Amino acid sequence: MATILGGAVVHPVSRAHEAFRFYHDFTQAAPDELTVYMSLFASPDAPEEAFMAMAACHCGDPARAEVDLKPLRQFGPPVTDLIGPMPYPLMNTLNDSGYPRGALNYWKSAFLTELSDTALDIMLDAMRRCPSPMGGLGIVPYLGAVARVDPTATAFAHRAPGYSLLIVAQWMDQRESEQNIAWAKETFDNLRPCMADRSYVNNLIAEDGQKVHEVWGANYQRLVEVKRRYDPGNVFRLNHNIDPLAQIAS
Fold first, then answer.
1. Is residue 208 helix, strand or coil?
2. CA-based angle 204:129:197, to the nearest 5?
3. Residue 47 confidence (pLDDT) above 90
4. What pLDDT, on the 0 to 100 scale, is given for residue 247?
5. 79, 164 in Cβ contact below 8 A?
6. What is the C-alpha separation between 154 and 147, in angstroms, rounded?
7. What is the pTM of this model?
8. φ, ψ for residue 7 (rounded to 5)?
């Protein structure tokens, strides 16, 4: 579709628990044409005040999109509704201003076992402690068509329905690096009891280590065989590497 119905609705953090449960139920029932991300972020005008946003993109029939997004736009109701028709490429730029050139970043990521109140309470506490107004937390759904592909059909193995967590520490002053990195690490550690034993490779940072079995799951052995055939010298190694010399089961 050249034009989609997309944008975000924003709620005060005081409505977080109710909105979190709504988000879970809404995304579980959403059609394949609709994707909705969730995020917690600070107000640029009042950094001590947090908000929850649900950002939607519906790439289906415009009339159907209006119907499918109606519950999302009516819930609350939101303090801000920025959903409207737009070119699809524009949808991919809506968050650009939140990631300015020159900003320093440190991210952590994992899959959650479920969208529980326990996980949300930890996330809300993290936002209260966030040292930078540019930091935040995000939830990405892995549902619908993504979860209907056989785990061994592609290299990407995480086909069970679920949600991915992003912990985004971001700041401008290099002197604030230590406290922002510490915040992301502490938030990640606090959320460990809520995490599944799997990782999305695009969200990993260098110091996360290899985690190859968490990333590739049951496909790891086949990928080692592919690596041995096409890159036996491990030329492409500046990543979370699949080592062609790794031991695999016979």
1. helix
2. 30
3. no
4. 72
5. no
6. 12
7. 0.90
8. 130, -165
Cβ atoms of residues 54 and 140 within 8 Å:
no
Q: Is 231 found in the same domain as 122?
A: no
Beta-strand pair 34-42/80-81: unpaired
CATH of the domain at 28: 3.40.462.20
User: Where residue 238 falls among pLDDT bands split at 50, 70, 90?
Assistant: confident
Q: Would you call the peptide bond into 71 cis, given omega within 30 degrees of 0 as the criterion?
A: no
Residues 231 and 198 in one domain: no
Burial of 206 (0-12, 13-18, 19+ CB in 10 A): exposed
- Give the pLDDT score at 46: 67
Count CA atoms within 13 Å of residue 222 on its CB side: 11
Q: pLDDT (tens digit, 9 = 90+) per residue, 78-104?
A: 999 999 999 999 999 999 999 999 999
If asked whether residues 46 and 159 sit together in one domain, one would say yes
Total domains present in the chain: 2
